[in-house]
Amino acid sequence: MSSFDPQKITEIHRHLHSHLPPEPALRVKAIESLLVEKGLVDPKAVDTWIEAYTEDIGPKRGAQIVARAWLDADFKALLMKDATAAVNDMGLQGQATGHLHAVENTDAVHNLVVCTLCSCYPFGILGMAPAWYKAAEYRARSVRDPRGVLTEFGVTLGDKVAVKVWDSTAELRYMVVPQRPAGTDGWDQEALAKLVTRNSMIGTDRDLSKGVA
Amino acid sequence: MDGVHDLGGKQGFGRIDRDHEDDPYHGDHDARAYGLSVSLRAERPYPIDWFRHVRELIDPIDYLTRPYFDSWLQTSLALAIDRGVLELAEVTGHKAPGPNTGDAKPLTPEDVRKIVVTPPNFERPTDVAPGFSVGGTVITAAQGHSGHTRLPAYARNTKGVIHAHHGAHPLPDAEARGEDVIEHLYTVEFRAADLFPEVTNSDVIYLDLWESYLAAA
Q: Does the first or last residue of chain B, that is N or C, have fewer Cβ atoms within 10 Å of its Cβ?
């Protein structure tokens, strides 16, 4: 049984801090040896987790969802109403897509997603979160100074564009639907999906026309 | 709890470092730390908010400075030690590892392939009617508490408007104490200017908050 005792956990953390190798690579190696020797972890299962988010699951999934929404008005209506159903419809369900919400950028609105309390992220459709998304700087600043954060990412918004920040504090996960750039009439889903950057689905990228030329 | 994990709105943080932003992992050991952490944790699933609370309880300096998946791995170890799956002395090297005495078998690659395409559903049925409706004005709790909670400090004691209702979900504060309490969950819209004194524009911030974090205003 878990104790649910914070004081006991603090003590365990203190011991782990003092007795495990301070260098991260050595620490991970020591822990893996122990867990495998004790029969708690199958190293092939560890490989499978790593490969799933290296080869198979990544932002290309989210890009396909966005590109289809740009082309198919019915699909877009479903995505905006029930993004989990839309993802299931494409057979792209995965971890953290069970309560997915899509929020749409327009000429007057820019959306930005963060998790200030930990690092919640829709990794079933966007893959592993970039290191900056999990870093203290982004988590601290994006609710307080989203426009400053966006400027660092090269996104400058006029005063007429409202910023909406989504702090993922529950099991809901958010994905931004960026605007379809001009000059892409007649493009198919594959070509459109190549324009959609991972950062544009988090909200730290906005203008996707740079890929059109 | 008022820990260093509650980062929203904290000041003094500088530029965002975008190195390696397209790599899924920060090197091989980061990838191993991820795979080990989730393997150990999924062998006997723990309540998600107990996991979060145990991570929040990492030494503050370590929390802010160690690699991300390193903190996941330490959290998984602490969960397993707390539950008796593993002995602290085995991890610290004071005792040779004994046999796996648990009843659960380690996760296989097939188990993992299933988990990565199976999203859990957290919504739970309730007979209790929601206390708030979309468009209603609410005010958040003025104070936190020393346990786990998902009301960030920056959003305490602030008026907002109910933007959406999502049915009922387990209350994280109770889950991290080993209790099962089901409450209605809402997305609440706040004016950034009501949250932070220096903001003068009309930007808004949305948070997903449970019924007991809120009162009618």
A: C
